[in-house]
Design a protein that fits this description.
The chain is α/β, with parallel strands linked by helices. The chain has two domains: 117 residues, NAD(P)-binding Rossmann-like Domain (Rossmann fold, 3-Layer(aba) Sandwich), CATH 3.40.50.720; 182 residues, Rossmann fold (3-Layer(aba) Sandwich), CATH 3.40.50.720. 35% of the residues lie in helices and 15% in strands. The strands form two sheets. It has a seven-stranded parallel beta sheet with strand order 8-7-6-9-10-11-12, sandwiched between helices. Strands 2-1-3-4-5 form a five-stranded parallel beta sheet. Helix 4 links the parallel strand 4 and strand 5. The protein binds glyoxylic acid (GLV) (2 copies). One glyoxylic acid (GLV) binds next to loops. It holds the Pfam family 2-Hacid_dh_C.
């Protein structure tokens, strides 16, 4: 059985697949594999271990051939995969939910605190040699204590942010999702509201939705205008959920106070003007990038492939909601 891995990933998963007796080839490319090379490398393989920048569609599945049984995405999000195309080709799809939940939630919380306490701006200020002595009005930020946190999306990651934040930080939590989750709502002392109410009342709005046609630009100029002028927006989900150009305008014009982004509409690019805004914290899609989590993702993707190639059901199949 042949497996193609589209990018260098932590070795632990590769080892599991080799130990299972598979013939595993890892992309020779340093960086995103070019499309032509990808189409060529997948020819005749039984499984593909893909990353979120690889588009998995009919062209690719045809190029692989009818023996292709499984595509294991090294990510929880799977907006890079065409689900209809996979169904038409009888290809089983898997992702890596669960193992990265805590890490992404921690990153969202880290961004929240970095914004409120102006950690990045203050760091730059020190490095620029601008600190000439203590000042009562120097770089004033905001406390998290007493604030309202609005979580948009209550899947595993949204719920984990709520779990970590509901005790000890003295915040109130609002959440919005397509469906209400009364059990975790009670457990984490949250209030279920509609999106407009959440945007109008939150001091920190954190996005935890999957990328789908329905969630694209769910935060655009009208939604930004509903937010408090003192509010901060955090996105660790997918870039196109926010209209990034509209966000830059909102930051420039004081419509909201600040934003922290880990994901962008057209990665690796950023919307024009974003990098020049001081009231932003920007990370390069690294919310799940911890040694612990990336190793666990590698192993889970590999185990999914091992299960399917041995004729068993995958551990974490993609089940579109
Ligand atoms: C990363 O963005 C993921 O979906 O796991
Ligand atoms: C992803 O794991 C989510 O459900 O938020």
């Amino acid at each position: 059985m042949k497996v193609f891995v589209t990018r260098q990933i932590p070795e632990s998963g590769i080892k599991l697949m080799k130990d299972a007796g598979f013939d595993v080839e890892v992309s020779p490319q340093d960086g995103v594999i070019p499309r032509d090379l990808l189409l060529q490398k997948v020819k005749g393989v039984d499984a593909i271990l893909s990353i979120l920048t690889d588009k998995m569609d009919t062209e690719l599945m045809d190029s692989a051939g009818p023996q292709l049984k499984v595509i294991a995405n090294y990510a929880v999000g799977y907006d890079n995969i065409n689900l209809q195309d996979a169904a038409a080709h009888n290809v089983i799809l898997t992702n890596t939910p669960g193992v990265l939940t805590e890490s992404v939630a921690e990153h969202a919380i880290a961004l929240m605190f970095a914004l409120a306490h102006r950690v990045v701006e203050s760091d730059q200020f020190m490095r620029d040699g601008k600190y000439v002595g203590w000042g009562p009005m120097l770089l004033l930020g905001n406390d998290i204590l007493g604030k309202t946190i609005g979580l948009v999306g209550m899947g595993r990651i949204g719920a984990n942010v709520a779990k970590r934040m509901c005790d000890g930080f003295g915040v109130k939590i609002l959440y919005y999702d397509r469906a209400r989750s009364e059990e975790i709502e009670k457990q984490y002392k949250m209030e279920f509201v509609d999106l407009e109410t959440l945007l109008k009342n939150s001091d920190f709005v954190s996005i935890h939705l999957p990328m789908t046609p329905e969630t694209k630009h769910i935060i655009g100029a009208p939604q930004l205008a509903m937010m408090k002028k003192t509010a901060y927006l955090i996105n660790t989900a997918r870039g196109p959920i926010i209209d990034e150009a509209a966000l830059v305008e909102a930051l420039k014009n004081g419509i909201i106070r600040g934003a922290a982004l880990d994901v962008y509409e057209q990665e690796p690019k950023m919307a024009e003007g974003l990098a020049q805004m001081p009231n932003t914290v920007l990370t390069p899609h690294t919310a799940s990038a911890t040694e612990e989590t990336r190793g666990a993702m590698s192993e889970l993707a590999a185990k999914n492939i091992i299960e399917v190639l041995n004729g068993r059901p995958p551990i974490t199949p993609i089940t579109p909601k």
